[in-house]
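W.,

You were right to be curious about this one. When I first looked at the sequence I had no strong expectations either way, so I just let the prediction run and decided to look at it fresh. Below is the sequence, 147 residues in total, followed by the output.
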Amino acid sequence: MNKFEKTTKIKCHIEDLFNFHLDTSNLIKITPKNMKVEILNSNFKARENEVVVIKTTKFFITMFWEVKIIKLEEPNLLVDLAIKSPFKYWRHQHIFTTTKDGCTMKDIIEFKLPFGFLGNIFSFLIKKDLNNMFTYRHKKTKNILEQ
């Protein structure tokens, strides 16, 4: 199992950070410019056991994701699990904690690549791509919520 983590401190109320993540339209705002994201089920409401369908396009390659919210503990935790994705396994935890200066946003992603040993050869590239993407997401989220 591969694991990726990213943590950022944000000067905002934890409820604002949590609610920001519940609103799927914000995913588009925090997605890097080299990627296009579309939410295909516009009536999606972030609740446990609900599934959001996402279309992503990067380098002219389109992928479809179906992501189920498996745990929601307001205002501290949102966990989603990909039930359809390019990955063999994808679990994403969004963890929010209060600090004296605001709060901390932490993303933990556990993933398995398809194709067994051959897929694992490319895990370092996936981790590099995740680092780039989540560095951008965290920076944009921080900028939006600290305004």
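Here's what jumped out at me. The first strand starts at residue 2 and ends at 10. And, maybe more interesting for your project: The CA atoms of residues 72 and 78 lie 5 Å apart.

Coffee later to discuss?

I.
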